[in-house]
Amino acid sequence: MKGVFTISLDFELHWGGFEKWPLPVTGYQSQVAGHLSRVTGNYETYFLNTREVIPRMLQLFEQYGVHVTWAGVGMLMHENRKQLESNFPALKPEYTHKNLSAYNYIEQFGIGNNEEDDPFHFAHSLVEQITKTPYQELGSHTFAHYYCNEVGQTVEQFREDLRAAQKAASAYGITLRSLVFPRNQFNDGYLKACFQEGFICVRSNPGDWFWKIESTQDEGRWKRLTRGMDAYFPIGNKKTYPISSLEVRPGFPLCLPASRLLRPYRPEELFLNEMKIKRVLTELKYAARKKEIYHLWWHPHNFGNYPEESLNGLKRILAGYDFCRREFCMTSMTMGELAETVGVLYANQIA
């Protein structure tokens, strides 16, 4: 078995943090002269930059032959609001904290009619680019950025959300196979529902204590700080793992642990920006030499504030993979491809 480089991206735009990120769409409910009016918000440029960065990411992935899983929020995959609402699940999450519900957000603040007048909540054209770019897998980040560890929601509501996500993807001729839990609220108790709704693999969290995320509410500051520090200093456990360590459980999707969150460029971090890129490159080379798996992830919108600098960091990482491919025969796989490979190896072992 060769070393494997896996990338998964949490593709969500504003659906990833509507309860905390102010946007112009707070003005969509009012109309002026028959046109939807907008109110200036702090995150408009951030997400517009993200939309411009995504095609450039796709070009780089194609250039370097890197296979990537784009775990997309299902709500993004619609051409217009009418189509989106027609795919709403029969059961919606009943969070105790109502502000966590995407449906509550739509009802309270409103959204636009389509991608043209609301590029923050619709991304049909970007989804099409992803599906048409070689080596890319369209995965799921659930339909409505569903939080599996929040009080009030149930596994039945989660299952309906997954069905809505599959329905949204079917418009592109795709059956979703790979899933990433929003806010990394990994819930082992919901895995059977994932498998029963067609998902063969999910991304799980690293084994470190600071990656055990119970809720979006009142998470300790020390835990968040430690997660951030681990990007620069060797605080956590080893970030690569052998394929033999992956457990195959009949009736469950394969759990693929994340290795490293690629944090964005920040000008105030000075030399720390270089440290985190070198840390990724060192871990990637280690995985290649040891024939292990290295699973890198981030959100495309992480590149929204400093797109050029963040893209330059990504280019260095992809060039590092290219070196590992040539020197150590490392390969790149999507989450779905890796799950298929593990399934074949497991079948051969028990045959």
What does the model show?
- With 351 residues, this protein is of the alpha/beta class.
- It has one domain (4-350): Glycoside hydrolase/deacetylase (TIM Barrel, Alpha-Beta Barrel).
- 38% of the residues lie in helices and 12% in strands.
- The chain contains 10 helices and 11 strands.
- It has helices at 44-64, 81-86, 102-109, 124-132, 155-170, 191-196, 221-229, 271-290, 307-328, 335-350, and strands at 4-11, 31-32, 35-36, 68-72, 136-140, 178-180, 201-204, 254-257, 260-261, 293-298, 331-332.
- The strands form 3 sheets. Strands 1, 4, 5, 9, 10 and 11 form a 6-stranded parallel β-sheet that branches. A 3-stranded parallel β-sheet has the order 6-7-8. A two-stranded antiparallel ribbon has the order 2-3.
- Helix 1 runs parallel beside helix 9 and helix 8 runs parallel beside helix 9 (307-328).
- The longest helix has 22 residues, at 307-328.
- The radius of gyration is 20 Å and the shape is globular.
- It starts with a strand and ends with a helix.
